[in-house]
Predict the 3D structure of the following.
Amino acid sequence: MIVIGLGFGDEGKGLTTSYLCSTVENPLVVRFNGGHQAGHTVVKDGVRHVFSSFGAGSLYKVPSYLSHYCTLFPKAVINEFYELVEVKSVQPRLIVNPLCPVTTPYDLAHNQIIEDERGTLRHGSVGVGFGATIQRQEDYFKLFVKDLAFPNIIKAKLNNISKYYGISLHKEEIDTFLDDCKHVMEIIEVMDYKEMRDDSNKGWDVILEGAQGVLLDQDHGFFPNVTRSNTTTKNAIEVWQKLAIVPSCPPAIYYVTRTYQTRHGAGYMSNEDNINLINNEDETNVSHGYQGDFRIGSLDPEMLNYALTTDALNHHIPKNYYPFKKHLVVTCMDQFPISIATLKHHLHTEFESILVSHGPDRNDITLYKGEKELQL
């Protein structure tokens, strides 16, 4: 199963991932893009957590796997691990591909310097170094998770990364990062795709959790206000093929949207009208110093159809595969109720099912069975 956001992020992918974990016997949540800039909210028995480096099934003791398309920031993993253990009473399992790029303090510093210099032309970056890490790796100044087992290798690569950016940091900051690198290796497990396939005797029920949404995709979003990753099924299908026990049976795709449009920070947004939300006290998204304001507006079917059409172009699988089964998940019905019948009428994609969420807990998700009214 693949979980894809149809907007600019914040659609309810964490909630959907958590729900899908309850539908299979041996779930494994796999992140196929993004890094610690993600923020996926899950509520279990009144306990609320915003997942960043860990998969959204972790409150339910579902293991997480970071694919090679994800980044890892040691400090973020450490902080989230201890929050889950000490505050949420959960012992999470995080498995990481050895070729995951590692975010360094230099990436954070460069990210924030560049975004500050843009002034009113900010890209809407979260300021935590994700895009900088991807660009640095593409420029061959690479640091991988596999390198973290070798302290002298880390030091040598950090020295080159410092020269790459032309940034010098205090020795104490670098020493802290080196300590974090050692510490994080005590928390995570490192496995490649073959080792992951061998790790479960029963075979994993893989749930691929996307970060951000299709409208932020680096190839199909509204440049320059995009993320530095592919947020469509492009990466997800490739990673799934590396992990799948039955690769000829493609995963179902669960497309997620709120009942209203959202965007965090700068960039195009088709509707930004003054809609009135209810039951909105626990909204995770707030104004952010680097990313900017959290913006809302009424849902735009054209934007949803664009995202669905765009994603369909990324279903790169052999012709002898079974066709994809597509599902729609509509969240936040408790905040801004709409007519699902009318929404369905405006969408060009046929769905196997439509799921509707009336709250933040996965138990709040129900199967849509039709309605009489046709007002949006």
